[in-house]
Amino acid sequence: MEAVLVAPRFGASVGRDVIVALACALVCALAWLVATQRALARATAAARRDGRRRCELGLELMRVRNSLMHSDESLAAGRHPCFALRSSDVAIVTFPKCGTTWMQAIVQGLRSGGALDYDDICEEIPWDILALDCGQDLDAEQRWHPRVFKSHEPAHSVAQGGRYIVVLREPADALVSFWRFLPAYAGLQPGDVSLEAFAGALFSGVSVSGQIWHHLLGWWQLRAQPHVLVVTYEDLKRDLCGEVAAVAHFLGMQPGPARDELVARVAAQCTLDAMTCAQHARKFDDHFVRAHVLPRMRCAPAAAVGGGSGTNAAVTHVSKARRDGGRVGMAVELNLSWRHAGHFVLLCALSAALALLLVAYFELSPLTAFGIAVTAVCQANRSILQHVELTQRALDVAEEKARRAADKREALQAGVSAKKRR
C-alpha cells in the first residue's frame, strides 16, 4: 500500500487564532532579522573604517620616523659626490631586506679568515649614509682588508670608484620581509600597517633607498661591468658554498686548498642556524645602529627588531606611540559565532512557521509546505542582506566624502593661520 500524507487540520475554534499568532510571530521574526543584519553591517563597517584609519596613521608615523632615521648631514656624507671609494674598496649594495646582513657576514668572514671576534657586524662594515650619525669615519682604515661598506643606495647616488657586490631578490619576497621588519623598527604594533598598504608605500618609494624598481634596474644595467658582482638571494639559498666561492674570487683571493678551506668555513658560519644561534645572534641584531638611530626616530631604546635580511628572527618590542586619536591594540573584534548560530535557528523557525501557515491555509502536505517555506525564507534573507549591504556601501561613501571635506577644511584653516602668523 502506498503511504498517504494527510495534511493536519486545525479546529474551527482555534484555527483562526493559531494562524494569526503564527503570522504575528513571522512578522516579528522578520523584523528582528532585518534589525540584526543592519546592526551586524554597521559593526562590520565600523571595524573596517577603524582598520583603515589605523593603517593610515601607521603609514604616516612609519614615514615620519623612517625619515628621521638619518640626519641630512650623515645622508649627504655617505653619498656621491661627498664620499668616494678607493679602487680596492668594496660596497655591499642591496635594496633593504634583500640579503644585506647575509652578504656582510660572508665578506667579513672571507676578509678576516673566518674571525668572529666582533660585537656587531655594522661596527666592522659601516653603513655609508649612517656612519656619521653612528660616530664612524668613512675615510678611516678598517681592521681588515679590503675596506667594506654597506649601502642601500641606487647606482646613481652610491659612492663611486670602488667595487660593488649587488644582492638582488624577488621583489614580492622582499616586500613581505620588509613589511615584517620596517613597521616594527619604526615602533609600530603588529597589524598597524596592512601588507596591502605597505606594498603601495614600498613600491611607490617610501624607503630612503628609493623606488624598488628603479633601484633594481639601475644596478641590473651594470651587471656586466668587471667591478660589479651580482648575486641573487635565491642563489645564496640554493648553493651557499658556491656563491661564497664566487665572492672570494671577486675579492681577488687566489684559488687553492687554502681558499677552498676558508670558503667552506665561512659558508658554515653563514648558515641560518649558525647566524641565529644564541652564541652569534647578537652579532647580526643591528644593536649598534639602533642605539644611535632610535632616539632620533622618537622610539623607545628597545622598540625595534634585530637581524638582517633573512638571517635573524626578529625580536620585537613595540611602543604604543600614537597621535591624532590613533589607539594601539584597540582593534575592533567581532565575535559573531553565536549570532551566526542564532541566525540559522531563526531561519529554521521562520521556515517552520511559514510551513504551518501553508498547511493550515492551503491544505498542502507538510513536505511540500516546508520546501516552499524554506525557499521563500532563504530568498527573503538574501534580499535583505543585499539591501543592507547596498545601504552600508552608500553610508561608507558618504562618510568618506565627509571625512575628506573635513580634512580639506582643516588644511585650509591651518594655511590661513600660518599666513596670519607671518
UniProtKB/TrEMBL annotation:
Domain of life: Eukaryota
InterPro entries (alphabetical): P-loop_NTPase (IPR027417), Sulfotransferase_dom (IPR000863)
Keyword Transmembrane helix: yes
Keyword set includes Cytoplasm: no
Domain Sulfotransferase residues, every copy: 88-275
Residue ranges the record marks as coiled coil: 388-415
Key words, A-Z: Coiled coil, Membrane, Transferase, Transmembrane, Transmembrane helix
Residues passing through the membrane, by range: 18-35, 344-362
Signal peptide positions on this chain: none
Molecular function GO labels: sulfotransferase activity
Xref: Pfam families: Sulfotransfer_1 (PF00685)
Family, as annotated: Belongs to the sulfotransferase 1 family.
PANTHER family in the cross-refs: SULFOTRANSFERASE SULT
Stated name of the protein: Sulfotransferase domain-containing protein
Organism of provenance: Diacronema lutheri
